Amino acid sequence: MTGSEGTLKLDQGRGIFRQAVSFALVLLCSVAFAVPARAQVIYLNPAAGDDSFDGSSRRPMGGGRGPVRSLRRALELASPGATIRLVNSDVPYVAGLASDKPGRGGTPGQPVVIDGDGAVLLGRMKLPPDVWRYMGNGIYRMQPFRKGYYQLFLDGKPAEFTDYRPDPENPEIPALKPLQWTVRDGQVYFRVKPNSFINDYALEYPGVGVGLDLFGVSHVVVRNLTAEGFYLDGIVVHGDSRDVRIESATLRYNARAGLGVGGTSLVAVVGTRFLDNRFCDLYTYGIPRVNLLRCQLQGGGDYIVSARGGTVRLIDCLLGRYRRGRFEELDGMVQVVRGETTGSGGDGKGN
Q1: ∠307-309-310 over CA atoms, to 5°?
Q2: Residue 142: which of 78, 105, 190, 192 has the closest Cα?
Q3: DSSP notation for 263-330
Q4: Which of 155, 215, 297, 305 lies at a 20 to 30 A Cα distance from 54?
């Protein structure tokens, strides 16, 4: 090899090296100075929001900026990976949130997160005294406008329920202790204390159907939300919903169930607390698949799980008391994996 050929090869090598170093520096700079895209946050306020707003702020700011009012609008605005944040004003929202248009949600690896931020969705409403009719022996009766599932509240908590038994001395009315209630043929009965009247009590009844209604959504996470006092369910997931995850929620005092899952939905529930839902904690219908992990199903209703279709797996869950049976399996199946039972049936108190 001549000297000129060696010099040429050396220059070519230096050129390749310089190109490699330049490319590496460009790549390093692009990584070091790239600014990650800020995750989209959409604020939702069912009381003070407006669907003409863009959802970009917790409060109305003018110029079209402010929280949206409906979950439907929030999901329309949400891109994959977005967070829909419910504005927590420390006052419960007497309202339900619904997504009734299928196809909304995120993508695999980039779910849309519905963050309750500790807010409470409330379904119960005050009962005026004039809806009650006095039946004798301290017992009053009223006919709710919604029938099928029942719950009665006294001072913000479920009143003590008992099965209907006729009074031996007057078969036209039930045998109730003071402050107990029961139901028969679509009529709700409540007994007051001696020397008191129905208008002495702060009684409430479910006035809203569902707290959070998710229909046909995909890749959605719900967290940090309390739903209580609804006529049907605190949360219902139905249609062909896919990859829905509920975590760190509290679902309590609802007339049918804390959570209802239907259709062909696939749902995972993690670290969620169920308490004193009147009929059951979890209600399934259709052919869904539901997995619960490290949840507290504290019961208090007729059943802990009513599986009227689909499959339910309870993994490392705490199972509490029930009135009629631990599980009701009608065209559905419940499997317990390393569950722990702390209550029993019979009287709804674990005795």
Answers
A1: 95
A2: 190
A3: TT-EEEEES-EEE--SSEEEEEESS-EEEEES-EEEE-SSEEEEEESEEEEEES-EEEE-SSEEEEES
A4: 215
| Residue range 37-83, pLDDT digits in tens | 568 999 999 999 999 999 999 999 989 999 999 999 999 999 999 99
Report pLDDT for 20.
38
Which helix (H) or strand (E) covers residue 28, if one does?
Answer: helix 3-32
Q: Which residue is listed with tokens 């003018």? A: 62
Considering only CA atoms, give the Rg of the chain.
28
Find, among 217, 186, 225, 221, the residue nearest to 96 by Cα.
225
Domains of the chain in sequence order: 41-122+209-341 (2.160.20.10), 124-206 (no CATH)
Quote the Cα angle for 158-162-163, to 5°: 135
- Euclidean distance between the first and the last CA atom of the chain, given in angstroms as a whole number: 99
- Residue 75 forms beta bridges with which residues? none
Question: Which residues touch 98 (CB under 8 Å, ≥6 apart)?
Answer: 70, 71, 72, 210, 212, 213, 215
Strand segments (E) across 45-186: 83-86, 97-99, 112-115, 120-122, 124-126, 133-136, 139-142, 153-154, 157-158, 160-161, 166-167, 170-174, 180-184
How far apart (Å, rounded) are the C-alpha atoms in residues 61 and 32? 35
Query: Hey, what amino acid is at 216?
Result: G
Contacts within 8 Å (CB) and 24+ apart, 321-330: 321/345, 321/348, 321/349, 321/350, 322/348, 323/347, 323/348, 327/303, 328/280, 328/302, 328/303, 330/306
> CA-CA distance, 321 to 242, in Å (whole number)?
31
* Residue bearing the bigger pLDDT, 27 or 44: 44
pLDDT digits (tens, 9 = 90+) for 307-350: 999 999 999 999 999 999 999 999 999 999 987 777 655 443 33
Residues 6+ apart with CB under 8 A from 109: none
Determine how many CB atoms are found less than 10 A away from the CB of residue 193. Answer: 12
* CA atoms of 333 and 306, how far apart (whole Å): 9
Does 31 score more than 50 pLDDT? Answer: no
